[in-house]
Every structure is written in C-alpha cells, then in structure tokens.
Design goal:
The structure is a single chain. By secondary structure, the protein is mainly alpha-helical. The chain has three helices and no strands. It is flat, with a radius of gyration of 11 Å. 0% of the residues are buried.
Amino acid sequence: MDEQRVQAYLSLIQKLLNCDSGEEAARLSKHRELLLSKQRL
C-alpha cells in the first residue's frame, strides 16, 4: 500500500475518533471509495 493511501486511512481514523457521537456513519459514507478498496495495508 502506498504512503498516500496509508495517510488517507490514518486521517479517516482521526476524524472518526474526534467526531461527535452519531456522525460516524456520515463520515464513513464520505470515504466510501477508501473503505471499499481491495488493497490492504
């Protein structure tokens, strides 16, 4: 996995950790293409 993709995952994780309760699903749907990718870490 390339560095850019790793940084995208880390950024998403940080956003999920810092978002208000109940906003997780909206955040995840904004990054759907990242989550559905077949590449692995």
